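During the first year of the project, the team set up a workflow for recording each protein of interest as an amino acid sequence followed immediately by a discrete structure-token representation. This format lets reviewers and collaborators read both layers of information side by side without switching files. As required by the reporting guidelines, we include two representative entries from the current panel. The first entry is reproduced here exactly as it appears in our internal archive.
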Amino acid sequence: MGEFMKIGIIFAMESELNALKEYLEVIKVYDLFDLKFYEARYKNISCILVESGVGKVNSSRTTQILIDNMKVDYIFNIGVAGGISSDLKVLDIVIGEKLVQHDFDITAFNHEKGYVPNTGVFIESDTYLLNIAKSLITDTTYKVGIIASGDIFLTDSNMSKKINTKFQALCAEMEGASIAMVCSLCHIPFLVIRSISDVVGSENKLTYEEFLIESSKKVALFMIKILNRLSEDNKIK
């Protein structure tokens, strides 16, 4: 009872990682394949934090290295995203019920946009982790829905509307779906949570830069709430 659970937490950028690291006790740092892994403690949980870099290749590579070398029980991807739903405002939190690669396109072979062979269009998050996150929702600034990922920082309102309409996605970023796919293929439970740093439009790059730190802090605090619940659950196992 009460043994250390091991959780991997992947961030695209250093600012996102630093926002959570403030609440944890870092006990060891590993350098592996030019990535820096921070082993930290939170109550009876061992957290492995790593900055993957931006984009689907970087994030999927990092996820596989994390799984192969750190033997984690769960993986979270947290950070910021751009809102593509009219229901979202800056600093809202989106909990990813499903993930989709909006830029994966083999429609030439009679598959729908986003379809990945042997995987499908959507990858569903782990039910247990998703239910924990849902139970911690406190107000209407928290949304549960689909997160879309692709190797583009969206600034085009027309493109964002197409992604929102096609996939019913609430927000878009550049890593979550690839992390989800690797976790799914390796049978590792996962959850993606994003705080909205900007809403796609002509000014979203400026908004992103202004709210990056604040958005990172908000999602970090929500992650701490999840760690508290996981810690309690781990005590009674």
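The second entry, processed by the same pipeline in the following quarter, appears below.
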Amino acid sequence: MGRMGADPEFLGTTVPLPSVAAAVVELPATHHTVLLRPDRRLAAAAVVDIDGATLVDVPREGARWHLDPRVPAEQQTGAAVYADNPLDRGHLVRRRDPCWGEPAVAALASRQTFSYANAAPQVAVFNQSKDLWLGLEDYVLGAADAAGARLTVLTGPVLADDDPGYRGCRLPRAFWKVAAWTGADGSLAATGYLLDQSALLDAVLGSAASAVEPDLGGYRTYQVPVGRLADLTGLDLGPLVAADRLPAARAAAAVARTGYGVELSGYADVVLGG
């Protein structure tokens, strides 16, 4: 059986689960952990360990979204929030990421990612920018000097106090991600990213969340200093802040220009050092 929960020692150097001042419920699953914030009915963070050398291709067929039985239903954002509107159940831990090791273990990991605790509402417009967001793990695994092709990915919604209310929950305007690996020199390395869906979300809510997907243009995806993500989310990201591969001078210039960081139009824009 695969390990239940993300392993802080998976990369050979300690990467603890993020912590936050708000109360969270730790929900370990195969090769990943969700930190659920009951007050927001959404995860504060989800952490997954990826062994790129032993990934297994698990079919999606038959997977069903389900409430996590370990916490009350009213503490999760369930099916009602996603019904008859242009909101997707956006996986935080991607379905494919924990699917490694023995085939039976990989299949179990895939099914477990369909927990509503591992989902957050995303506007259902699929375009280049969102495809970029969804493929960042694959790109970093292939492009970084990752020892043993191992990666730990932390992700979640940015939970702000002024997020708009909808059907008993508040919808996040942005999502964050941090990819971490051990470099060829044995040191911890990390990069941070932000997906901004503010304009899309405001337009959807302004149109009373009609069942027709809006033609609203792209998401905006940025590479962001890990320390800035810690500030935006209120999460303690531990050693990942100091391990950031985005050079400080370039990060400062990008933040001054865009307000977030380096705006990405494709993987060639991602900075992994230098």
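For the second entry, the following points were noted during internal review. The first helix runs from residue 103 to 112. The longest strand covers residues 42-51. Both points are flagged for discussion at the upcoming steering committee meeting.
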